Give the backbone structure.
Amino acid sequence: MFNFISNSWLPSTTGRTFNNINPADNSDVIGAFPLSDAADVDAAVKAANDAFDAWRLMPAPKRGDMLRVAGDIFARRKYELAAVMTREMGKTLTETKGDIQEAIDTCYYAATETRRLFGYNAPSEMHNKMNMSFRMPIGVCGIITAWNFPIAVPSWKIIPALACGNTVVFKPSDDSPHSANIFAEILMEAGIPSGVFNVIHGTAEAGAAIVDHPHVRVIGFTGSTATGKAIAARCGELNKRVSLEMGGKNAQIVMPDADMDLALDGVLWGAFGTTGQRCTATSRLILHADIHDKFVENLKAAAQKLILGNGLTNPQAQVGPVVNKRQFDKILTYIEIGKTEGTCIFGGEVETRNECSAGHFIQPTAFTGITPKHRIFREEIFGPVLSISKVSSFDEGIATANDCDYGLSSSLYTRDVNAAFRAIRDIQAGITYINAPTIGAEAHMPFGGVKGTGNGHREGGWTVFDIFTEWKTVYVDYSGTLQRAQIDNY
C-alpha cells in the first residue's frame, strides 16, 4: 500500500511501514502502509501547490461536474467499500454503507453548490460606485481525520474544499488507511486533475508536518480535544485558518410524557451503535425520577439482547469491536472507574464468546447512580459505555446536560412542545434532536459543537464553505472623479 501524490502511488521515503489490522480478527493483517515523514508531506504539498492555480481557475460548476461523477462512483462501489471499511475499523456493514452514503450525499450537494457560491452586493454610499464581494479559494488544505468514519467525515471536508477551488493533502487515521486510498481512486476516476488531491499515510509525525508546512493554508481536523487544541495553538502561531471538530459527551434526556419505546430505541442506537465510537454517541442518559427505574429495567433487558460480532462474517451482528488495543484498554480502565462511581447494571466485561475471542470486543455497558461529579459522567470514553443520571425536573435535566465541558449533540424525548422549544433554546450544544437519538446528522445541515467540541466552525451544509473560502471585497468606481470614502462626507 502506498501514498497517493500527483495521481501516482508512491512508497514513503522513510521505507518504514505500519500494519493495518482487522479489530474483529487480530490475525487478519489488511496491509502495510507507509509511515511517512516531513519529506513525504513536502512532496504532497508541492504537488497540491503546483496544481492550485489551474484548479482554482477552472469554473466552479466544472469542478462540480467532477464531484457529481465522484458521487456516482461512490454509489457504484458502495458495497465493495463498505466491506473494506468494516474489515479495517469494525462497524457493521449496515453502518459502513451509511458512512458511504454520507459521501455520496456530500458529493451531490457540493456539486450543486458550485453554482451557488454566492457573494453579496451592497449599495455604495457614493454616486456611480458599485460594491461587491466574492468567495475566493484559499490554497492548499491539510485534512486530518479520525478512523471512526473513514469516508463520511473526510468527505465533509475534502469535497467542499475541492468545490471551492482549493487543493488537498489528506492524512487519514492509521486505523483506517485503506479507505483513504479508495477515496483517492474514486476522485482520480472522476477526473480530478493530478496533484489536486493527495493522500499521505502515517501517524502524528506526518500530521504535524502538514500543520507546520508553510504552503498549507488551512487545516481541517477531526479527532481528540487534546490534539485539536495543540493543532489550534500551532496554527495560531503560524497564522493559519483551522477548523476543529473534537470530542463529545452527549446527553439524552427522557421526560415522563415521552414515548418510552421510542426513547429506548434511541438510546440503544445512540449509545451502542458504532460500538459507542462516535463523537455524537449518547454517553449520558438523563432520566426523570418518575420513569427512571422502569426505563432502566427495560434498557437492561434490551441491551443484553444486542448481538456482538464480526460484521463481515456474522450478518446478525449489531455491535462490532473496539478499533484497537489502545482504545480497548482505555475503555476497560473507564469501566473499572465506573464500578467505583456507580452501579454496573449490565455489561462491564470483555466479550469472548464465539468469533469475538479473535478481536477487541467489549460488552455494551451501563452504570446507574452517576452524577456530574463522576469521571465517567464528564470524560469522553469513546466506547460502549453509558452513564445514567436521575433528575427530578425538566430544569434539572437541562442543567445536568449542560454540566459538561463538551457541547456537540443532545437529545430530548417529550410530547410537550413547550419543553421541546425550551430545550432547543437552552441546551448548550451545536446539535439538538427532539424525539430522536443524539446521532443522525444529515449532509446538508451544519455540523459542529460548542465549548470543548470545536472552535466555532461548522462542517456540512452551506456553512462548510465558510471554512474553505475567504472573502474578497471589490469596489468599482465609474464616476470618473476621485471620491474619498472613510472621511467626513457629511
